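Entry 12.
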Amino acid sequence: MKKEIKIAPSILASNFSSLGEEITNISKAGADYIHFDIMDGHFVPNLTFGPNTVKYLRKYSKKTFDVHLMIEPVDKFLIPFIKAGADIISFHPETVKNVDKTIKVIKSYKKKVGLVLNPNIKENKIFPYLNKIDLILVMTVYPGFGGQKFMKSQIKKIEKIHEKIKKEKLNIDIEVDGGINISNAKKVLQAGANILVAGTACFKGGKKFYKKNIYSLRKSK
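Predicted 3D structure (tokens):
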């Protein structure tokens, strides 16, 4: 089944002095998801948003709130982010004691679940959970900071995941995050991804360019 290409602007690249307005503008420009990079200064070397920020920003858009938890521990923050308005929660398997249990908690609140693969984690790490999740997020940079260079080595991983999903006839989205731009989006989509997380590529130029930026990424295949 051919999946619709979706664009998920990462607000990490937006203007923090007017986050609400930024989310409204990027939503109107055609974003499918709003991507939140949640960092704790522990699992990754940076700090970003907490549940209260997500809750405050929820009123500025009806788009899907795509929350990537780069934190450890994860479990005690699941319900706060769910109640804040997250629609999708993705986490790194190595940050929880029991992956099945964490998935079950998220699913119990009727939210979608994603598992995240850092560049150094092999795809077969998450294969045992494929029939329980909705999304796989492949990182094409090491998480922690925006503006990093895309790692071409991860294309093969996307292809392997896509083939596995196709073979098992599963309905799972493949999302890719890290250095995504017009020049590499085509290769990522051709490898089998259908959701592109992009920061600078979406927000560059200011709000008058947001629609064009999103359109260019979506049509890059």
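Annotation: Residues 155-168 form the longest helix (14 residues). The longest strand covers residues 33-39.
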